Amino acid sequence: MDIIEPLWTAASDVKLRLLVFIVLANMALVLRLYGLMARKRFAAAKEGRVTVDTYRATQNEPEDVAVFNRALSNQFEAPVMFYALIAISLALGVSSWLTVILAAIYVMLRWMHAAEMTGDHDVLKRRRLFIRSITVLMALMVEVAISTLLWA
Questions:
Q1: Nearest to residue 72, comparing CAs of 33, 130, 119?
Q2: Which pLDDT value is given to residue 17?
Q3: Helix 12-46 to helix 97-118 angle, to the nearest 10 degrees?
Q4: pLDDT tens digits for 16-58?
Q5: Are 101 and 135 in contact (CB under 8 A)?
Q6: Contacts (Cβ under 8 Å, ≥6 apart) of 60
Q7: Is the pLDDT of residue 3 over 70?
Q8: What distance in Å separates the CA atoms of residue 75 and residue 60, rounded to the nearest whole number?
Q9: What are the distances in angstroms from CA 89 to CA 65, 84, 99, 115?
Q10: What is the CB neighbour count within 10 angstroms for residue 61?
Q11: What is the CA radius of gyration of the chain?
Q12: How far apart are the first and last CA of the chain?
């Protein structure tokens, strides 16, 4: 056990700061998508492709605008589990360097997924990115569970 203990104990203050910045990077993605969606909606309204009634129930949006709404909705699904796992690991004091690495990979994959969804929108590539992000999220969940058993 002594050989792996530094994963949890080494440079705890740096680890904490990194986790906070990683979470903030994921939150920045949400804010970026809000901005992109608003810009697309304003442009569609200015072009006369949508009316105010379109947004009473957000129906009949043009596809090039609706994709931003879906990309944003995506950030309130699996990423909620990410936020919970990070909060749990920090609250219990069981975050390890593996937590930091997995969290960073997860957020990077979420940014890539959102970029693919709102960019080229290659569905197969987007699906691969999604599956990878879910796999990393599951690994993070296992890591937090094991860390809790060992260190909480």
A1: 33
A2: 94
A3: 10
A4: 999 999 999 999 999 999 999 999 999 998 999 998 788 877 7
A5: no
A6: 50, 54
A7: yes
A8: 22
A9: 37, 9, 8, 28
A10: 20
A11: 19
A12: 14
Amino acid at residue number 151: W
Q: Pick the more confident residue, 96 or 4.
A: 96
- Residue 75: predicted pLDDT: 94
Cβ(99)–Cβ(88) below 8 Å = no
Instruction: Name the DSSP class of 55.
Output: G
> CB 121: neighbour CB atoms within 10 A?
14
Q: φ, ψ for residue 135 (rounded to 5)?
A: -60, -45
Q: Distance between CA 69 and CA 59 in Å, rounded?
A: 11
- HSE-CB at 28 with a 13 A cutoff on CA atoms is 9
Q: What is the DSSP letter of 54?
A: G
Rounded Cα gap, residues 138 and 7, in angstroms: 19
What is the reported pTM? 0.91
Q: Where are the alpha helices (DSSP H) in 10-122?
A: 12-46, 63-74, 78-92, 97-118
Are 60 and 145 within 8 A, CB to CB?
Answer: no
Yes or no: say if 140 and 99 are a contact pair by the CB < 8 Å rule.
yes
